[in-house]
Design goal:
four-stranded antiparallel β-sheet, 9 helices, 13 strands, about 40% helix, globular
């Protein structure tokens, strides 16, 4: 494991077993000002994750000892940090597996350094809307009782709260609750949910979601959208987001 420290920039953990690709990518990222920690296999990557607590994980799908999909799953068990997968063009199944494991996006090898950096910056921008509190701590925190003469929250609705039959999204705190339970979402899942709750009952095309959530202004792989919708359904309830065949998805309006 090697580390190059550059202050005041998001720290990237790069996990890649090919030494040539690893070093070329590290140098390219450092030229753009990113501090980079590198690891050559999945287990070393997991150790580095716990040691440096990076701001973004960039990992290859095919890794020795612990592959990229397995590493992604392990990290998702304890962190919602952005994860960007790297995959060869001939590995569509690996791409989907990586997204299902919790990756936010992927980039196809070989890639231009400018394209990789643009994709990294796009993923990092989504972190700005992510909750700052740890979900477990927030879920267990006691809720203070209101003052005796305080108005009931039910009679004073907040414009920052979007409520849909037990699905509650607070756009100020960026907290999502289902039936009162705090639900941890990745930055990408949260951005996707915000799009749906801003337009309940309206069909959002996959191309629209790619542009708004992933900043893709050109044709891109719509599997990214489909897999993230599946992941979001698993967390907020499978019946809340409806598939409109041939068009896209919509959030069901409350009955």
């Amino acid at each position: 494991m090697t580390t190059a420290a550059v202050p005041a920039q998001p720290h990237i953990l790069l996990v890649e077993d090919d030494e040539v690709i690893r070093e070329a990518t590290r140098m390219a990222l450092e030229r753009y000002g990113f501090p980079v920690t590198t690891a050559a296999d999945g287990l070393e990557g997991l150790e580095a994750f716990h040691a440096v607590r990076p701001d973004l994980l960039l990992l290859d799908v095919m890794l020795p000892l612990l592959d990229g999909v397995g590493l992604c799953r392990r990290i998702r068990e304890e962190s919602q940090l952005p994860i960007l997968m790297m995959s060869a063009r001939t590995d569509p199944v690996d791409v989907v597996s990586g997204l299902e494991a919790g990756a936010d996006d992927y980039v196809v090898k070989p890639f231009e350094s400018a394209v990789l950096v643009a994709r990294i910056r796009t993923v990092l921008r989504r972190v700005r809307v992510a909750p700052t509190a740890e979900p477990e701590a927030a879920a267990d925190a006691p809720v203070p009782a209101p003052a005796p003469d305080a108005p009931s929250p039910a009679t004073v609705p907040s414009p920052s709260v979007r409520d849909f039959d037990g699905l509650r999204v607070d756009t100020d705190s960026m907290e999502v609750r289902v039936d009162g339970r705090l639900v941890p979402l990745t930055p990408t899942e949260l951005r996707l949910l915000l799009e749906f709750t801003a337009a309940p009952g309206i069909v959002l095309e996959r191309s629209t979601l790619l542009e708004r959530v992933w900043d893709y202004e050109w044709g891109a792989d719509t599997r990214v959208v489909d897999v993230h919708v599946q992941r979001l359904r698993a967390k907020i309830g499978s019946g809340r987001i409806e598939t409109v065949r041939g068009f896209g998805y919509k959030l069901r309006r409350p009955a």
